[in-house]
Amino acid sequence: MRIDSKWGRTLGAFILATAVALVAGCGGGGSSSVSEGSTNSSTSGTGSTGGTSTGSTSTGSTGGTGTPTLAANQTAITVSSGLTGAAPNMPMVSVTLCVPGTTTCQTIDHIQLDTGSFGLRLASAAASTFLGSLPKETLSGSAVAECAGFADGYTWGYVHVADVKMNGETASNVPVHVLDDLSQSAVASGHCATGTLNNTPSRLAANGILGVGTARYDCGSYCATTIANGAYYVCPTSTSCSSSLMPLAGQVSNPIRSFATDNNGIVIAMPAVAAAGATSVTGSITFGIGTQTNNALPGSGINSYTTDHYGDVQSATLAGTGGLTAFFDSGSNGLFFVDNSIAQCSSGFFCPSSTVQRGATVTGFNGTTGSLTLNIANATQLLSSNNYAFDDLGGSISAISDLDLGMPFFYGRSVYIGYDIASSGSAGVASSAYVAF
Fold first, then answer.
1. What is the pLDDT of residues 40-87, one digit of tens each?
2. InterPro entries in the record, alphabetically (predicted)?
3. pTM given for the model
4. Could you tell me the domains of the chain?
């Protein structure tokens, strides 16, 4: 299901985790990821050069994990064996949820950080002792539920309201999608997304997904104006739900946009990793851009590429072939693009006999063009190791025809993601959002 331009990409993670699991099933080692083991997410990255990374550490196959020194507007990002021991290139953060206006809180770890989606989605099993205290969102006296459709399935459950805290930052009264706390039988057949139901930690390979992409709301004006949107429902009882309009203020949204300060963007800084990968790496996410001394956009040595509302640049090329676009998605566990000249494993990941390179360019709506070098190694060999962080893992799947710069792209650089100040927007149309690196 595709709502707004990016809805179908929100769980791009799921499809790739499945692919990793297939590689593991063919003799590979640790695997899988958004949300995708598991079927969880995550799809892409590049082995390109350039950029800088601060406040982050990485380890080889036998080393330990370092912890960066963090300010109040930062929190740690960890890529390791993860929740299931089968989730390569899956960046995890911890999030604290509180009953609004109270100190009744729970900190939940192993939340996947996803720059390709919008809003916090939490598996109910991860907050079972706390969930009963968290109020449900209501519309005209009825509880609100959401069916979020993704590339390979969907998530389903009530929308709750919580205060969301990350280190020293707080977002108050944020709609949060809680998964698996409502039977899908409450929705008439055919009125919710079809495919695999990805509602549990084992299916997600995570306790939840934190969507921190360029858009504030997960559906935007479409769900605010179209009642048959397939996403939002009102549920007068736990056994009966019907499709409903959902005003912007009631939609699941990126919590960072609701921070009192440091809410105009993020900076993701990750260490570089060796060609063979690393057992674990620790980086950081800094909230805000140009709001404090630790998040200032450098005056030189970095390019800014404006995007549409959903984070897509205007155009891209790959190995000299144009007509593409590109997006930057920490929720993808590899670099994903179409290239029939690179040998594939049975899973759809690339398995060249030796590492190959592909040149790419990205062009923002502001006319800025930058070059990237993508390194692609043999996925079977990578995933047979005891490592989980790779900057050269890639593949080709039918769901992605453009250039998906997933988690591999983020290693060895600081990536600035500036948010669109508008509440909604259209795919392929310039916005105030940008990516800089």
1. 233 333 333 333 444 566 555 433 445 568 999 999 999 999 888 888
2. DUF3443 (IPR021847)
3. 0.87
4. 7-436 (2.40.70.10)
